[in-house]
Amino acid sequence: MVMCRCGSETTRTTSWSVSNPGRQFWRCSRPSMSCGFVGWIDPPMCPRAVQVILGLLRAMNMLEERERLAREDALKMKKLLFCSWFLFLFYIFLY
C-alpha cells in the first residue's frame, strides 16, 4: 500500500480533468483533510492521446444527453397516448 505524506493510506483514483484525462494517481484517502496530491501512477500521455480521449468523452456525453432527451420524449408520448385513449373511451361511453 502506498502511504501519503500525512501518514494515511492512499486511494487509487482516475483523473478526468482536461489536462490529464484517464490518468490514474494516488491521493490521500482522508476526504475532509486531504493533504494534497501524492503521485501519478501512469506516465504522461502524448497530446494526441489527450485529444482523442477528450473527443470520445464529449461524444459519450452528447450521446447520453440525447438518450436522456429521447427518454423524456417517450414518456411524454406515453402520457399523451394514455390521455387520448381516456378521451376516446369517455367519448364512446358517453354517446
Explain how this protein is built.
By secondary structure, the chain is of the alpha+beta class. The chain contains one helix and three strands. It has one helix at 47-94, and strands at 10-14, 24-28, 37-40. It has a three-stranded antiparallel beta sheet with strand order 1-2-3, with no helix packed on it. Strand 2 (24-28) and strand 3 form a beta hairpin. The radius of gyration is 25 Å and the shape is elongated. The relative contact order is 0.11. The model has no long low-confidence stretch (mean pLDDT 87).
The strand count comes to 3
Instruction: Output the strand order for the largest sheet.
Output: 1-2-3
SSE string = EEEH
Estimate percent helicity. 40-55%
Mean pLDDT figure: 87
Number of helical segments?
Answer: 1
Overall shape: elongated
Beta fraction: 5-15%
Radius of gyration: 25 Å
- Rounded to the nearest angstrom, the distance between the terminal CA atoms is 78 Å
Q: Which residues sit in consecutive blocks of at least 5 with pLDDT less than 50?
A: none
Question: Would you summarize the structure shown here?
Answer:
51% of the residues lie in helices and 15% in strands.
Give the SSE map:
Blueprint: E1 10-14, E2 24-28, E3 37-40, H1 47-94
Antiparallel strand pairs: 1-2, 2-3
Question: Which key features would you list for this structure?
Answer:
single chain, 95 residues, alpha+beta, three-stranded antiparallel beta sheet, 51% helix
